[in-house]
What does this fold into?
Amino acid sequence: MKNIIVGLGEILWDVFPERKVLGGAPANFAYHASQFGFNGYIVSAIGEDLLGKEILSGLEDKKLNYLIETTDYPTGTVEVTLNNAGVPQYEILEDVAWDNIPFTTRTENLAKNTQTVCFGSLAQRSAVSRETIRKFLELMPKDSLKIFDINLRLNYYTKEIIEESLQMANMMKINDEEVVKVAALLGWNGDEQEICKRLLGEYNLDILILTKGTDGSFVFTPHMTSYQATPKVHVADTVGAGDSFTAAFVAAYLHGERIEDAHQLAVEVSAYVCLQHGAMPKLADAYLDLFHNRG
It folds into this structure.
């Protein structure tokens, strides 16, 4: 399958007060996976506009493969403001191109050859993109890795979308705020770890990642739990840090590394991304060398 790793869903411009930065969780994930030597792809849609052309130009600059269809809808943008801790708040434009990702013959062919996909709940806020995501996952090879990075934003999710996504996935990533929301939607009680272990069991997941910001992170499997503290760093912004965490973990996991080692690499990489501005910084060679010299 030529090590194809796909980020499937939104691609957009994160518009900060002083600049705009290429973003969207699936694009961030695919870019960071590609830095570890995998054949990363972003699958999404843009508009017939200047912002769309700039997205393609940005992906070319980053040497990231893409399967991006052009639609009659505007290219997606998100107004981002950072609080004093560098944590982003988002205002997400609706009815944009990535809400209307078409399922094409090219998409079908890529799905049939994809080893790993990462998808979220945000791009499923519209029926068109939700159906494209579902079809893509159904067509992937039987032994493929399907990561549900839940990414709850505003009111763009439902219990039905979350449950259907969990049933299609074999790995999940969630943060501490999202655990509380998901537990409430499902009517479950218990602490974070209990909820995570229940999600793992009831939806037959192989791996569940829980990130807790400065309070560390957990990786749960049916047989073990790994915990790592979050390194103390001077945060520039946290945009894309979680996506780099997922990409680094998956890269190491697919490389055959132990869960604990994959977890450690993920923590180190995401801390480095927090030191940089924007969601897609070039990783320091030290992390990539570490990865390629291990396993």
